[in-house]
Design brief:
Layout lengths: L3 H26 L6 H8 L3 H7 L3 H20 L10 H18 L1 H17 L7 H24 L8 H20 L10 H16 L4
Helix pairs in contact: 1-2, 1-4, 1-6, 2-3, 4-6, 4-7, 5-7, 5-8, 5-9, 6-8, 8-9
């Protein structure tokens, strides 16, 4: 007689290995050049298991992206729950999370660059992207808390919509740290972190109410 709890634990472990090894290979080599059987082999999982959990490569890629951003948001945004800080201070911490991405998680940024190209070429539907968009939606909910607090304490601008502030911050910072991380910006002797810090500070000054 099969042990259902043991089977469930084994399935969860297999899926986690697939996600982790898939992320590692995709971040290193690009998504197009890595096959599902290669991920199964490196992860020590039967090829049939990979296709059972993730029927297509697109399913796996979206699942990996959702898993990566979920883990990063949990690890990096915990301080947004802290009390006793203003909305502006929490917005500063939010901006700093992108600097953490650049300093410590260039693999995530490389994967995200490959991910954007892959889903664009695949012409993915909104339903197929659902696992990823749900994670991004949760990140937007966390930003909503910052926005509401900033309005309540008067430290963030009230003449700018929440959507504009969130979208501008996310897209500008993520695009910038990604381009520097994957080598799409010619440094020419410049300090990448100094330039990224300048962008971060410009966004902070754009949306924070000056005392």
């Amino acid at each position: 007689m099969r042990n259902k709890e043991k089977d469930a634990a084994q399935i969860a472990a297999n899926k986690q290995r697939i996600l982790e090894e898939g992320f590692r290979l995709f971040a290193q080599r690009g998504i197009e050049s890595v096959t599902m059987p290669q991920i199964a082999q490196v992860g020590g999982v039967d090829r049939s298991s990979v296709y059972r959990y993730y029927p297509t490569k697109l399913d796996l890629v979206v699942a990996i992206s959702a898993n990566v951003w979920q883990k990063f948001s949990q690890e990096s945004y915990a301080w947004l729950d802290g009390e006793g800080t203003t909305g502006a201070e929490r917005y500063a911490y939010y901006l700093e999370a992108f600097m953490v991405l650049y300093r410590e998680h260039k693999d995530i940024l490389r994967f995200n660059q490959f991910f954007n190209v892959f889903v664009a070429n695949e012409k993915v539907s909104s339903e197929q992207m659902r696992p990823f968009t749900e994670v991004i939606g949760k990140m937007a909910e966390r930003f909503h808390e910052v926005y509401v607090q900033g309005h309540a304490d008067g430290t963030l601008r009230t003449d700018v919509s929440e959507n504009e502030m969130f979208s501008s911050t996310l897209h500008l910072m993520l695009a910038a740290v990604t381009r520097y991380a994957v080598g799409l910006v010619y440094h020419g002797g410049a300090d990448p972190e100094k330039e990224l810090t300048l962008l971060k500070d410009l966004l902070f000054r754009q949306y924070v109410v000056r005392a």
